[in-house]
């Protein structure tokens, strides 16, 4: 069953689950030298973006419409915030299993119950530029069948629905460092993430698989997983050190969100599986003039 919730909300308020969200940049707030900012944005791409990733870029400046899965989670909160801050994102659809009451003019929530079937949502998913898929769960302590259903089946069902409704859209999947493409790992998480990635990459259309290692929560993003919340209380203090000694393994929820949007917008032509270093480069390459 699907419930549609249309939010008519001021740009100022981002309540409840996203209470720390900054307001969207208003049109009036845009600097008058918008062209200069665009030029600066392009310079940033040229400076930071590896040549091999250069691509089939969406028409520069075209606003994108996105759908986010897992918006209530730590990574999803970062993705939604990045969308709200990015003036080049015109619309964000959240497919959630419980209402989040995100209050923002760009956001629309759809409460959905069966994450293996999106037939009722095909019109909502039509004409989108991309899907930021942040839904997931830890494998620890989870029965294998349930972990496969949520990790593999939910992801593939969403990707197929997007491909059918928006064939030109890009699907960005948050996998994880250590995902095993051979699908033979003795670790359930590595094996199932690997098989999910392989199945996604075999679908027609643009797919990007992100394999972040350590993710530092920003802007009050909070994990839905109690164990991770406890872990982050310890590791957050170590973040500056981690960033110094292992920058290739460290990203933030903000960088991940910006990189996901950049993948949709830039459609990098290089490897479709991106690790932390490439994710951070993509985040830096985000060309939208409205990003704050
Ligand atoms: N956190 C990290 O350090 C890290 C590092 C590398 C990779 N990742 C990957 O990134 C993804 C997101 O992680 P996260 O840290 O954001 O996790 P999280 O905070 O636990 O959030 C999980 C999200 O998935 C949704 N979800 C979980 N089970 C669901 C189900 N059965 N049906 C519908 N929705 C469900 C949750 O929705 P509800 O709010 O409704 O439960 C929530 O939106 C995961 O795949 C994870 O493996 C995370």
Give a verbal description of the structure:
The protein is α/β, with parallel strands linked by helices and 292 residues long. It has a single domain, classed as Rossmann fold, CATH 3.40.50.720. The protein contains 7 helices and 10 strands. It has helices at 34-48, 74-85, 144-165, 188-201, 226-245, 253-266, 276-284; strands at 2-6, 64-69, 89-96, 107-112, 130-133, 170-174, 206-211, 214-216, 250-252, 273-275. The strands form 2 sheets. Strands 1-4-3-2-5-6-7-10 form an 8-stranded mixed β-sheet, sandwiched between helices. The protein has a two-stranded parallel sheet with strand order 8-9. Strand 8 (214-216), helix 5 and strand 9 (250-252) form a beta-alpha-beta unit. The longest helix has 22 residues, at 144-165. It is globular.
């Amino acid at each position: 069953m699907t419930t549609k919730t249309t939010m008519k909300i001021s740009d100022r308020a981002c309540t409840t689950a996203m209470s720390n969200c900054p307001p969207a940049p208003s049109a009036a707030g845009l600097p008058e030298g918008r062209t200069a900012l665009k030029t600066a944005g392009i310079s940033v791409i040229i400076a930071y973006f590896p040549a091999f990733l250069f691509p089939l870029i969406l028409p520069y400046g075209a606003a994108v419409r996105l759908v986010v899965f897992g918006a209530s989670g730590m990574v999803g909160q970062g993705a939604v915030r990045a969308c709200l801050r990015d003036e080049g994102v015109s619309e964000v659809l959240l497919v959630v299993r419980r209402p989040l009451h995100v209050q923002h003019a760009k956001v629309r929530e759809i409460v959905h119950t069966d994450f293996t079937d999106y037939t009722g949502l095909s019109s909502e998913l039509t004409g989108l530029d991309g899907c930021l898929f942040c839904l997931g769960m830890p494998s620890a302590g989870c029965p294998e069948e349930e972990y496969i259903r949520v990790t593999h089946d939910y992801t593939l069902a969403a990707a197929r629905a997007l491909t059918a409704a928006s064939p030109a859209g890009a699907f960005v999947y948050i996998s994880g460092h250590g995902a095993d493409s051979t699908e033979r790992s003795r670790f359930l998480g590595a094996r199932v993430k690997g098989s999910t990635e392989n199945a996604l990459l075999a679908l027609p259309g643009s797919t990007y698989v992100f394999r972040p290692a350590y993710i530092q929560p920003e802007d009050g993003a909070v994990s839905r997983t109690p164990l991770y919340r406890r872990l982050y209380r310890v590791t957050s203090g170590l973040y500056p050190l981690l960033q110094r000694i292992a920058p290739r393994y460290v990203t933030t929820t903000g960088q991940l969100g910006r990189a996901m949007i950049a993948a949709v917008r830039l459609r990098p032509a290089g490897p479709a599986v991106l690790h932390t270093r490439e994710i951070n480069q993509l985040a830096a390459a985000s060309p939208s003039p409205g990003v704050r």
